Amino acid sequence: MMPDTQRRKQKLQTREHLIEVALYQLAKGGLVATRTSDIANAAKVAHGTIFAHFPTREILLDAVIDEFGMRITKRLHELVSSNCGMKELLEAHLRGIGEYEAFYTRLVSEGHLLHESARNSLIMIQSAISFHLIQAAEGEMEACKIRRMPVNLLFNTWIGLIHYYLINGDLFAPDGSVLERYSGQLVEHYMNLIRKD
Amino acid sequence: MKMCIACGMPMKTQKDFAMGDEKRDYCIYCARPDGTMQSYEEKLESMTGFIVKTQGLDEKAAQNAAKGMLAKLPAWKV
């Protein structure tokens, strides 16, 4: 018989594997349209195995979004130093989401169709990002490097620009990554908008 | 990397921890001036205010989101 610790370890590994496969499948097929059976097939497990780990589809979706949120906020923390300037932060933000571009795009374009806790997770992710951006922005406003403006509009203008390009990726970069193609241009443009002459 | 049990922030350097004490499980933003951890009500109020200030959401919507976020964190999980 398998010892308890080994069984727990194996259970944890299966759970992590399912989350990893789900991240990929949901990015590919969409958060609303992907079926749990698609994820089970891709993970090469029985359909019931999914529900042994995640009792409902919503719970699975929450676990995947939370895992994504944790990775992206940790990555941002790794990429930024405490005295990072606004431009470096915007670049780090795009590098962070660029690693999961397809999933992030699905999350923001389908966000309003998802259940409440999934939407809350997206607000939490944006909270972590805005925390860094606004900390830098307030410093640069104080130093007269960028214009004074309400920080929510500063943040939403940036997010709105990025999301518009991502959601319409089929028009902006039909054959590849939106962020690889436009990151430099978008950061430059946004800095020009907020920079103080 | 350790994460704050009360708000989820990753704590990378010593100054991210409450009172600069790396043995603590909560961050500088979740600590009161005397170093003790803020209560649920204090955290809910400050998190709601933070979302309104940084993302411009309606106050009630922000409070709902903050409640949902806090419910997932180890310090407030039921």
Structure report:
The complex is a heterodimer of chains A (about 200) and B (about 80). Chain A is mostly helical. Chain A has one domain (about 5-195): Tetracycline Repressor, domain 2. Chain A is about 75% helix and about 0% strand. Chain A is built from 10 helices and no strands. The radius of gyration of chain A is 19 Å and the shape is elongated. The mean pLDDT of chain A is about 95. Chain B is mainly α and about 80 residues long. Chain B has one domain (about 1-70). Chain B is built from 2 helices and 2 strands, in the order E-E-H-H. Chain B has helices spanning about 40-55, 60-70; strands spanning about 1-5, 10. Chain B has a two-stranded antiparallel sheet with strand order 1-2. In chain B, helix 1 crosses helix 2 (about 60-70). The radius of gyration of chain B is 13 Å and the shape is globular. The two termini of chain B are about 25 Å apart. The mean pLDDT of chain B is about 90. The interface of A and B includes residues 73, 123, 126, 155 and 156 of A.
Termini distance of chain A? 73 Å
**Low-pLDDT regions of chain A:** none
Mean pLDDT, all residues of chain B: 92
Q: Please state the CA-atom Rg of chain A, rounded to the nearest Å.
A: 19 Å
CATH architecture of chain A: Orthogonal Bundle
Query: What profile does the largest beta sheet of chain B have?
Result: 2 strands, antiparallel
- Uncertain ranges of chain B: none
Q: Strands of the biggest beta sheet of chain B: in what spatial order?
A: 1-2
Please give the share of residues in helix of chain A. over 70%
β-strand number of chain A: 0
- How many domains of chain B? The number is 1
Rg of chain B from C-alpha positions? Answer: 13 Å
Largest sheet of chain A: none
Roughly what fraction of the amino acids of chain A lie in strands?
under 5%
Summarize the structure.
The complex is a heterodimer of chains A (197) and B (78). Chain A is an all-alpha fold and 197 residues long.
